[in-house]
Write a structure and sequence with these properties.
Blueprint lengths: L2 E7 L3 H13 L5 E7 L5 H8 L4 E5 L4 H10 L6 E5 L3 E3 L5 H9 L3 E10 L14 E3 L5 E3 L2 E2 L2 E2 L9 E3 L7 E5 H6 L12 H11 L3 E12 L10 H18 L4 H21 L3 H27 L12 H7 L9
Parallel strand pairs: 1-2, 1-4, 2-3, 6-13
Antiparallel strand pairs: 4-12, 5-13, 6-12, 7-8, 9-10, 11-13
């Protein structure tokens, strides 16, 4: 199979300098590309000078993660894509179990490796840990990470397991499936577009897997920090986008309860003296209402909507029942 690793870059010369060597060293099975989102630093000249084997795709504008990857992948000739963040360190033989799983499981369309914290290397990393799920109200959580609680990696997820969503920090996908789904929804800009992509793949009957024998280390927040209210805005808004487009069942009740829970989250930010994050939640809701007509049209076009959740409310499990790790759920 032809294999393309595509790293989306925006003003990330320092990250490329730090992390690109491991990708080149341990990815002999693949062609490595850097898709540049109209950087204004010296990323392009740096790659050309120091990593001439890396092919550069130059996007005309910085249109975020979703459109950036859609544009970059549109003309690539490959059977498999690996969408890799620029702040990820890969490891020896990381591709072997991924390729083996794709070859032996034709219905598996998307795969995520074990995602560990680059700075605290024996702990799972927030963005995807050991594979993701969502609750009935669209809140994401992972094996190895629930809200801000990260588990130590003690081999408890050294397996191959079906999951609901794979992290966009390191996401493998068959090119046929990516094209069939028309790529990412570009209205998301960034954050949670991979959950929407995975959900749409699941609605079409494809399988998504976590492969724990492949591991990478992710810095996380290198482009947009968790303390930035813009990230709060995108996460809350895009979660509502995803839920509205894809959820089965009676949407109105689910959305009403979700909006109430978001209101509680906004109050929590306020009590934590984070008023800009409270404002970000409010802005997310108003922006969601602006897009509701388009989202309902997209929902109507989705004929098969699968049951998408194992747990009704991860908020209840975590904050009320005090269940802090995946295996206790």
């Amino acid at each position: 199979m032809k294999f393309a690793i595509v790293i989306l870059n925006w003003n990330g010369q320092k990250l490329l300098e730090q992390f690109l060597p491991s990708v080149i060293k341990y990815s002999k099975e693949a062609k490595v590309y850097v898709a540049d989102n109209a950087s204004t630093d010296h990323s392009i000249s740096f790659i050309k000078q120091h990593f001439p084997s890396v092919e550069i795709i130059q996007n005309k504008e910085n249109d975020g993660y979703a459109k950036g990857y859609n544009d970059a992948l549109s003309n690539l000739d490959a059977d498999l894509f690996c969408l890799l963040n620029s702040d990820v360190e890969v490891t020896k033989n990381w591709l072997t179990p991924i390729i083996t799983t794709f070859e032996s499981e034709p219905n598996t369309a998307i795969i995520q490796p074990k995602l560990l914290d680059f700075k605290k290397r024996d702990y799972f990393e927030y963005a995807g840990a050991a594979g993701g799920f969502i609750d009935k109200y669209g809140y994401p959580y992972c094996r190895g990470r629930i809200f801000d609680t990260l588990e130590k990696d003690e081999g408890q997820y050294d397996d191959i397991s079906e999951i609901f969503w794979a992290s966009g920090a390191c996401l493998f996908i068959r090119s046929l499936v990516f094209n069939k789904l028309n790529g990412f929804d570009e209205h998301f800009f960034a954050h949670m577009e991979e959950i929407d992509l995975c959900w749409r793949a699941k609605n079409l009957g494809y399988t998504i897997k976590y492969v724990g024998h492949s591991k990478v280390y992710h810095v996380g927040g290198a482009t947009l920090s968790n303390i930035n209210p813009k990230k709060t805005f995108l996460n809350f808004r895009n979660s509502l986008f995803t839920l509205t487009k894809n959820a089965n069942g009676f949407l109105l009740v689910t959305l009403f309860l979700r909006l109430l829970l978001d209101g509680l989250a906004g109050l929590k930010f306020l009590f934590e003296f984070k008023p800009m994050h409270t404002l970000a939640v409010l802005k997310a809701h108003f922006n969601y209402y602006y897009h509701i007509g388009r989202l309902l049209k997209q929902r109507k076009s989705t004929k098969n909507k699968i049951k998408y959740y194992e747990k009704t409310s991860i908020v209840l499990e975590y904050f009320v029942n005090k269940k802090k790790n995946y295996k206790s759920l």
